[in-house]
């Protein structure tokens, strides 16, 4: 059974740093692109970042480019998103998903990690 388990909730003050992770199981993690998507309260799903199978290439949405960094540890089957210079607009549920697409269209999603940035 494919599982993507988000690790905990996260909170910080304006301008702060957070790291969220996703533990994968039930499939060969190193064979898949992995993606982060988020959904802010009352808003649509937003594509955040993607990383390739080997972790050698990544891409970011315009709203997070230069502030967020995606990485993966294929030995530990873990996907990570590091977030700097956080602002209140980054408050959202952050989902990891298997594969590479837009903001939707994924067969497997994690349950989401709530990230709250407080002013």
Q: What average pLDDT do the residues reach? A: 94
Rg measurement, Å: 13 Å
Helix count, per DSSP?
A: 0
How is the biggest beta sheet arranged?
Answer: 6 strands, mixed
Low-confidence stretches: none
Topology as a string of helices (H) and strands (E)? EEEEEEEEEE
Q: What helical percentage do the residues reach?
A: under 10%
Strand content: over 45%
Total strands: the figure is 10
> Which outline best applies?
globular
Task: Report strand order across the widest sheet.
Answer: 2-10-9-4-5-6
Pairing-aware structural class of the strands and helices? mainly beta
Distance between the termini: 40 Å
List the topology elements.
Elements: E1 3-6, E2 10-13, E3 18-25, E4 34-39, E5 45-51, E6 58-60, E7 68-73, E8 78-83, E9 92-98, E10 113-118
Q: What tags apply to this protein structure?
A:
single chain, mainly beta, 0% helix, globular
Written description of the protein model:
Strands 2-10-9-4-5-6 form a six-stranded mixed β-sheet, with no helix packed on it. A four-stranded antiparallel β-sheet has the order 1-3-8-7, with no helix packed on it. The model has no long low-confidence stretch (mean pLDDT 94). The N and C termini lie far apart (40 Å). The protein is globular, with a radius of gyration of 13 Å. With 119 residues, the chain is mainly beta. The chain is built from no helices and ten strands.
